[in-house]
Amino acid sequence: MIVLEKREFIIYFALHFKPMKRLSQFFGMLLVTGSAVSSSYGQTAETAITQWMEGNFKQAKNTAADVIAADKNNALAYLVHAGGLLYESNSAAALADMEKAIKLSPGNALFQAELAECYKAQSNMPQAKKQAEKALGLLRSPKSGMEYFMRASMESIQSKTDDAVADFTKAIELNPRYVRAYAKRASLYMDKNQNDLAMSDLAKAVDINSQYGYPYYLRGIIYHNQQQYDQAIAEYTKDIKYDPLPGDSYFNRAVIYRIQKKYDLSIADYNKAAELTPKDADVYGNRGNVYYDQQKYDQAMVDYNKAIELLPTKANYYVLRGNVYRIKQQTDLAFKDHNKAIELNPKYSFAYQARGEDYYSTKEDDKALVDFKKVVELDPRNSYGFMYMGFIHHNKQQFNDAITCYTKAIEFNPNNMDAYNNRAACYDALGKTKEANVDRKKYSDLGGTITASGTSGKKILYPGSTFDPAAAKAALSRGLATIKGRACSKYDGLRFDAAGAKVILMPVTPYLQEWYDLREKKEGKTTWVYMSDEAYKYRIEAVADAEGRFVFEGLKPGKYFVQIIHNFNQLKTAKVYDGSNSYQNGPVMQTTNYYHTENYTVERSARFEKFVEIDEESETKKITLTSGLIKSCAL
């Protein structure tokens, strides 16, 4: 199963302010609207700003709407009204308000900056950056906290993080109760992984206004990333309490509930997130993951389909849906989705991982290995990718390569219990019992179950090196040389031709030589030495005729290993005692024993081997495979 919980946490684009001790400087700058404003309407606009800065966004928007109803040329009221709309995620209406404000006062830097925020809220970053550049040109010499704040916001859009931090700091110096400046600076500290500074700013923001939801949301993210899940849940819950549209807090809290396996709570939160943000594809994709965890694959498929419908260009959703198809054994559809994911994002490691699993499930190990190598190329610390590479080498009896991969999997995930268990099996195959026992102990300590078992006492060992199929294939390519031979066994002074026995010929590679040397050294009553299945594939077979003769043709010069296992039944005859008869012959007692002749068979098995060197291109080599010197077995 692939667990994909990586998500960019969305930062609200609304303007959140707290009341300042002194507002005269701020008002004096904003009230240059290009139109006449009556005293009463000016006071009402000031009230809207105060409400806006105190975080009473709904009241601020309503007050600004009253001002606009009475005076449609009050640019300041459009600014405040737009801020309230942004807070409600209604960026289209906010954009319309700012266009009206700018039409009334084209040269107002703050109006131009707020327009950039509207574009950013619509995810129109090219236009937002262009508009931010224009606003920065008007904010070259900020004087008020508001101007510094807006310039910092524009610098943030332009990815000028250090400049933005400096300007948010200046805004706070001019107004120590500037709540949103604390929050915005905290978000930049988070981007720079300076979480202590971020937490300090967020604590100040909450202290100034405990009903301002955004700082709780940011604190939730910090705790979330630190895997302090209970603290993160508490912060997200506070944001949900105070924020009118807490879709992201529901989403993030659902992510944690899934990690904690509280699936019902996770589903409930994703349902709330779907109500608040019905076009957010990630909500459906992640809710599908929870259904997947519960093996509710049909429901997961519905959500993955919805996510793809909403955002057909995101590779992740195709990976997830493809995994369900694989579980349902709809392999063609699984490959189709995973290929689509790679097409959409050629650098997405999880897509190659998923397709690698497809190949592995269909026993296409070589193709799977290519994909898992791509996984660790793109994500060098991917424990999962290294473990699957270990599986494949393990299947090929390439035990040292498998051990290397399992070791990497453990390095990047010390709790990868399956990697320990599989590495133990590889150590066993190489005769490294001590290392195998250490790994099994670790597997057990991590929660794996190892039960008592009994065996025949036989050990099976393999060579440690990696077989090179290309070299073996080249050695068996067509030539002009020939090996002719005859195989016989000798028992009880009799010759037995290896009639019908299978004879194999293999090229002598470093792997085969290691196998042979290991067998000569280790094989015995309690130990068998095998070569890998892949190495054994690279052989030529012949069948001996009635006289035990065989021929291998079309060989190249080189060194070869020839082997025959001669199994047969030897017919033998024995005298079987039937009884006796005793009688008195004068003074002598005589006994006569009676026998009959009976045939029986004895199972015979002999292994004959020989290394044969061909030196010349058209050479013919003659060999005899016997248990000793049998002159009558010669060719």
Automatic annotation (TrEMBL):
Pfam families: TPR_1, TPR_11, TPR_8. Keywords: Repeat, TPR repeat. One of its GO terms (cellular component) is cell outer membrane. TPR repeats lie at residues 145-178, 213-246, 247-280, 281-314, 315-348, 349-382, 383-416. One of its GO terms (biological process) is receptor-mediated virion attachment to host cell. It comes from the Bacteria. The keyword Repeat applies. Gene3D superfamilies: Tetratricopeptide repeat domain. InterPro entries: TPR-like_helical_dom_sf, TPR_rpt, Ycf3. This is Uncharacterized protein. It comes from Niastella yeongjuensis.
